Amino acid sequence: MIKYRDTEYRCSMELTIDLIGGKWKSLILWNLGEDTLRFGELRKKLPQVTQKMLTQQLRELEKSGLVNRFVYTEVPPKVEYSLTPAGKSILPILASLCQWGLDYIGKTEKINVDAACQNRIDKYINSNANQE
């Protein structure tokens, strides 16, 4: 049994899914992997997510210590989001998930992968391999 922030989990996978699971959290982390982004910039990268849902997911990621939120004291208010070191540590795992998805559908369908996308996947997978 694992207890984290007043919640009990039966295994670490249950905890992990609670931290990064759902439709949007992994995509938010992936998009923040390259840049610090303002809310509107992140919303443009994820046009299907509602403003309410994006706000909720960013708050949960911030509470979990995976995302930094920096508020500038100016008018109009400016808020930027970036990954914490813990958030950055998930990027090689997300890259492996991306590669798995490409490999999986590549078995049955011909796919064209954008070179920039593949380079990003390779970057995180290779950086993780170099750390081991």
UniProtKB/TrEMBL annotation:
GO molecular function annotations of the record: DNA binding
Alphabetical list of PROSITE patterns matching this protein: HTH_HXLR (PS51118)
Entries under Gene3D superfamilies matching the protein: Winged helix-like DNA-binding domain superfamily/Winged helix DNA-binding domain
UniProt keyword annotations, A-Z: DNA-binding, Transcription, Transcription regulation
One Pfam family in the UniProt entry: HxlR
Keyword DNA-binding: yes
InterPro entries: HTH_HxlR, WH-like_DNA-bd_sf, WH_DNA-bd_sf
Limits of the HTH hxlR-type domain: 11-109
Record-given protein name: Transcriptional regulator, HxlR family
